[in-house]
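In the design runs reported in the main text, the only information available to the sequence generator was the tokenized backbone. The following block is the verbatim input for one such run; it is reproduced so that readers can re-run the procedure and compare outputs position by position.
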């Protein structure tokens, strides 16, 4: 069953209007999200005997060897202390979120909210959400938690801990006015305002539910410390067995997982292989079972090992982001920002890093992987269409009009080598292409941990380039990145006209009306150039032929991605 695109990204709209009970366990109907369900409750029908489309029933056993192509060492294990992929990919194996995402679902970027720890939910009104937990869910059988049952108090405590932290993405819960636990299995969210993307926020890759008693309470008696590896105790499909710094993480099957029969594999080895040559050699020699490969290297690997299965898909809704401080000169001048956009050879970028495959028109707000109902295409952006062509001569002309006839020295181009050599190469390429339009810069590579607290956090002097957080909800891409009051506003824009539209879209429950507001936002952002998203190239994942139920999926829900995978040999 194909998931209706409007519902995929806007399920909460219909739910808020319907005030009906929902537990979407199978693919939703094509009913527009702006309309209420026909009648009554919708109950989950997804069980082990009723598998999702494209999923085969597996047999248990074996070790799954997953290759990660950059440093896998977590920066601690507290989900609200860092937003790094290193920490959250690890927690994705061991922890669970209240609401989940469909795997495989309807494609790589299908983030329709589905039950996970939650059995069902009900919108009592547009500002009151009641969620019922599945009964009998157990925490990992490790001290000091020792396999006790998950309760609504765990959920409430986790979200309150996040809201009381300095975590950047606590903004996902900013509309929560209060949390109540009427009983052991029920949690009630009271919102200050309607939030059309709230269910998606609860399914977000950062929303891991914690056991209070798993943390170290020696320093903070109220909220605890989850930095140490011994605190990695969740409800997820796998349990962390050991972590070998600079090598990888080893997980074992959770025998008490709340989804009967899952996961299939007994063990997972999450192996860090930062060196590209070693990555290719490992796949050729069958030393790993699955791993991503850069587009230019796919042919080399498959010629060396023809048995490998190639999966090609549109890159994650994250990708690389080129950001600049629009709150101070020279990028406070719109003409300078437009000149910067005109200096980027988007087709050349795809040829250099993705064999020419992909979408050169990424952004200005929504990524190329968003459905057409939300994302405007070239020719639909109004005056902003003019700034997404490669025209160095026009860029230099604009710089002259802005008072820089000899070009601009943009200073430090802040980046990092923490994502591997490819991002460094992309930064070098970006530096070269903007020089054609009159922008000089010098690359400064920060250690990964320092990059997270500077460029990635929006703390830089002039320009910065690196991986963007992969968002799921439209509100994150719009309000989160552009509103003047948002902690995730990395360009530091303060645009009253834009702020008004951003506030309107998150409150609008009618799908057609919200879409029109979002189109206004895209056209405005395209014309005023607040960020530049680099083109979205095609991604490749290669795996051994004996692996079944392998589904490329974005974000850090690694456990959900691999709980269905099984080894047929």
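Verbatim output:
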């Amino acid at each position: 069953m194909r998931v209706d695109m409007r519902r995929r990204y806007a399920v909460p709209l219909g739910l808020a209007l319907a005030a009906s009970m929902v537990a979407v366990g199978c693919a939703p109907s094509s009913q527009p999200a702006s309309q209420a369900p026909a009648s009554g409750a919708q109950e989950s029908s997804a069980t082990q005997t009723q598998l999702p489309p494209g999923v085969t029933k597996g047999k248990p056993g074996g070790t799954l060897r997953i290759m990660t192509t950059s440093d896998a060492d977590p920066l601690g294990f507290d989900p609200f202390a860092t937003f790094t992929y290193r920490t959250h990919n690890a927690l994705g194996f061991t922890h669970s979120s209240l609401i989940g995402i469909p795997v495989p679902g309807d494609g790589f970027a299908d983030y329709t909210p589905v039950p996970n720890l939650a059995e069902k939910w009900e919108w009592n009104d547009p500002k009151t959400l009641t969620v019922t937990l599945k009964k009998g869910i157990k925490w990992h059988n490790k001290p000091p938690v020792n396999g006790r049952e998950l309760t609504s108090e765990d959920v409430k405590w986790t979200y309150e801990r996040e809201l009381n932290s300095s975590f950047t993405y606590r903004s996902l819960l900013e509309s929560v006015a209060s949390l109540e636990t009427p009983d052991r299995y029920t949690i009630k969210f009271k919102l200050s305002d309607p939030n059309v993307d709230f269910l998606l926020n609860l399914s977000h890759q950062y929303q891991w539910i914690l056991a209070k008693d798993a943390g170290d309470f020696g320093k903070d008696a109220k909220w605890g410390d989850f930095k140490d590896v011994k605190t990695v105790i969740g409800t997820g499909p796998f349990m962390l067995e050991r972590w070998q710094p600079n090598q990888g993480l080893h997980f074992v099957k959770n025998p008490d997982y709340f989804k009967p029969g899952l996961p299939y594999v007994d063990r997972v080895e999450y192996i860090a292989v930062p060196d590209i040559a070693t990555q290719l050699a490992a796949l050729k020699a069958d030393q790993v079972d699955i791993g991503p490969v850069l587009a230019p290297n796919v042919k080399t690997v498959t010629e060396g090992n023809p048995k490998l299965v190639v999966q090609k898909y549109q890159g994650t809704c994250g990708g690389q982001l080129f950001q600049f401080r629009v709150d101070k000169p020279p990028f406070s001048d719109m003409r300078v920002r437009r000149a910067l956009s005109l200096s980027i050879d988007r087709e050349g970028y795809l040829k250099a890093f993705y064999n020419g495959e992909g979408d050169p028109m990424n952004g200005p707000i929504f990524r190329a992987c968003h459905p057409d109902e939300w994302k405007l295409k070239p020719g639909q952006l109004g005056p902003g269409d003019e700034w997404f062509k490669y025209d160095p001569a026009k860029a230099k002309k604009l710089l002259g009009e802005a008072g820089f006839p000899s070009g601009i020295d943009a200073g430090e181009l802040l980046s990092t080598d923490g994502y591997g050599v490819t991002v460094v190469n992309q930064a070098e390429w970006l530096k070269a292409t903007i020089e054609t339009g009159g922008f000089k810069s010098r690359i400064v590579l920060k250690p990964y941990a320092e990059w997270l607290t500077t460029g990635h956090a929006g703390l830089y002097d002039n320009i910065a380039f690196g991986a963007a957080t992969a968002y799921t909800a439209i509100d994150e891409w719009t309000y989160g990145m552009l509103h003047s009051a948002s902690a995730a506003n990395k360009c530091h824009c303060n645009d009253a006209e834009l702020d008004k539209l951003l506030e309107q879209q998150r409150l609008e429950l009618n799908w057609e009306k919200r879409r029109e507001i979002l189109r206004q936002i895209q056209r405005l952002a395209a014309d005023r150039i607040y960020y530049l998203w680099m083109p979205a190239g095609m991604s490749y994942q290669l795996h051994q032929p004996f692996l079944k139920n392998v589904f490329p999926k974005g974000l850090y829900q690694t456990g959900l991605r691999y709980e269905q995978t099984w080894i047929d040999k």
